[in-house]
From TrEMBL:
Keywords: Signal. It comes from the Eukaryota. The keyword Signal applies. Residues 1-18 form the signal peptide. This is Reverse transcriptase domain-containing protein.
Amino acid sequence: VLHWFISFLLGCLQFVLAGGQRSASRPLTCGVPQGSVLSPLLFNIYVKLLGEIIRGFGVKFHQYADDTQLYYSTPNHPNDAVEVMSRCLEAVRNWMGTNRLKLNPSKT
């Protein structure tokens, strides 16, 4: 099974097709191939630890594909919510950097 996974992930090529023009093929150096049935499952396995980190701050979250939405409610202490979310986001940013993922700052 391990050899099958390796063969699935290694040697993949990617290209851009726009306006009937195709770019040169380039090797896929990270991530999983887009459009594969197996890719979402592998991505979910890869980011499983991220959920544990988020839950460690008492923050709730939803994940869909490669998007993660965080939410935290404390109606009587809004300053606490800002502090908790700031610390959680910093931990998420650190984990993502360590694991070769990019956080989109315009969505945070």
